[in-house]
Structure formats: structure tokens, C-alpha cells
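User: Mind C-alpha cell order:
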Amino acid sequence: MAKTKKKVRRQKLSHDSQDAMLKEADAQTRAIMRLETYQRAAYSVVAIGVLLMLWGFVGSSDFGYGVAGIVCVILGVPAAAILHTGIDHGKKNVEKILKDYDIVHGRNTTEESAES
């Protein structure tokens, strides 16, 4: 069975609700920017871990550096993956909020993006 798109009826929002939508989109955008900073930090932990592994297992006779590198990689990769997923979902959520805001204001976002 093919899925059919249902037309969603949007109610007219008060001016306060519209302002709240924009404030929420702004707050979420700021949170996404903070998460991106943490994601870069997680990538740095992974890179440092790889360097420590190379130094510990190949470059020096002290295996402690290699073990520390493995720990960094084991902690950094899942952290970066979780942050990446959160950032993607957050960006989609902000897009939905802004799309709903445009629908309420009678703007057709697909036509505007096709004209650009």
C-alpha cells in the first residue's frame, strides 16, 4: 500500500506563540553549536589516542602510552558518534520548527528553495 500524505491543518498561532517558536529555534541552534564544540573535542581525543597508540606500540618501548591511546579511542569514538547523532536530530528539529513557522505565515518553503 502506498502511503498518502495527509494535509495537516495548521491553526492560527498567536503572536506570542510565534515568538516562542522563533525563540525555541534560536535556543536549539545555540545548543547545537555547543554540541558541535564538544564533538570537535571528542574528535581531538580520538586523534590524540591514535597518536599515543602509535607512539606506545611502535615508537617507544613503553606500552603504557599505547594503552592510554586505546582508552582515548574507546572513549572518544562513541562520544563523537553520540554527539553526531544528537546534532543531526537537533538540526532536523530546528528545520521542522522553522518550516512550521513558515507554514503558519503562509510561505511555501519548497517554492522558495526552488527559486534560489
User: Anything to note?
Assistant: The radius of gyration is 23 Å.
